Amino acid sequence: MSHPTERLFIGGEWVQPAAGHYEVVDPATEEVVGLAPEASRAQVYEAAAAARAAFPAWSRTRPEERAAILDRAADLVQRDFLAHTDVARAESGATASTARGMQVGVGIARFRRYARGALEPAEEAIAPQINEAGPMGRAGVFGALAVRHPVGVVTCVTSYNNPWANPAGKIAPALAMGNTVVVKPAPQDPLSVYRMAAALAEAGVPPGVVNVVTGSGVEAGEAAVDSPDVDMVSFTGSTAVGQRIAEVCGRGMKRQLMELGGKGAALVLEDADLDSAVAGIGTTFSFYSGQICTAPTRVLVHRSRQDELIGSLAAYAASLAVGDPSDRATVVGPVISAAHRDRVEAYVAQGRKEGARVVTGGVRPGHLDRGFYVAPTLLADCTPQMRVVREEIFGPVVVVVPFDDEEEGVALANDSDYGLIDYVWSGDVARAFRVARRLRAGGVGVNTVGRNMEAPFGGFKRSGVGRDVGSYALHAYSETQAIVWPG
Questions:
Q1: Model-level pTM greater than 0.85?
Q2: How many domains does the chain have?
Q3: Measured between alpha carbons, how far is 464 from 263 in angstroms, rounded to an integer?
Q4: Which of 35, 49, 187, 316 could bond to 21 as cystine, CB 3.0-4.6 Å?
């Protein structure tokens, strides 16, 4: 199976890029791992036009056919699992275990899930309604049916922190519903998405149903959003970029699904199991070096447990092996780029300037002479108005803010522009659930950072628009039509 990742994938063909290529760099070694194609604006428009041309036939395919193609694609990705894992690890900087389980493994699982999803009923019966005679006609009993239809051409703009799970989580449900797609991967690690496209093509996806375009700058992404052939944009990334995309979508009345930034509050009540809380909060240090929007980065702890929690978190961070992500012993790998490392370091410096105390970390790991590494960092003595508390850092940095009672803790948690996923730790589960319902977030973890992959995922406030995951993703990539008839 060939993977011509130096070419664009448009209309079922591997196409030479009009604007040349750019280098994809391994964040751990700073070595070039491949060349990605640089699409012109015209080529992105060609991809959207190909998706538009393919939509009528694809949208009318039997659900069983779409399911079979998605299942075959999962089989093909599984066949080349090790090769895909190596590429994902090299281009994203993820640890070997993360690349295997959370990247390629989750990508396969999502194709399987939406193979089943293609077979889920697209019709929902509405209870009959009795209408009195009036201006609208005679009295009668009226039946109704809600029917989900594909939206049309969907642009999928994906994030760099998971080059398999994030694109698969958009492409698979969109295809299952009968949409066609234009995929614009993050510029830092696009090679995996071309491998995904190759698997889909080999699985039998018709020409034009899946198209992949890439670019190192903003041009390709802008074209993928503003093309007149695009009906919907599904975006994962920063709130700032999401706002700009939303403005373009608003002018064209395009549907949107936005999964944006987060500053997850971890509310640690006085009766919490601190070992559990530390293990959960510690994932900010360890899981993909904190480059995850759902991370519990903003720790709000009852003042009576503050010192104990800070000590335990510092010890946890110090115990984590930082280094080469290809080494199975490594827990913390690099961040995605030199520019992002500098950004994270600038936030830590800003925290110091504002009065935060660096408990651990705050410097580059001394034993590594190359790679974009940031040591797991814990900031204490923080106040609610500090930038490190209010803004998304997207790195292995945890900030700690104390509170004196439950009311204050809830108020601090909700005092944020973000509202993606928050967390509550308490030894009283009923209390934890009561607190969870008061948090203005799209999701809340109670005594866990785990996820239920059928539960709706999305954010309140500036953390996003819409919900996906599980069957909610099928609804997100659907338009709903009402059909009414007299009984």
A1: yes
A2: 2
A3: 13
A4: 35
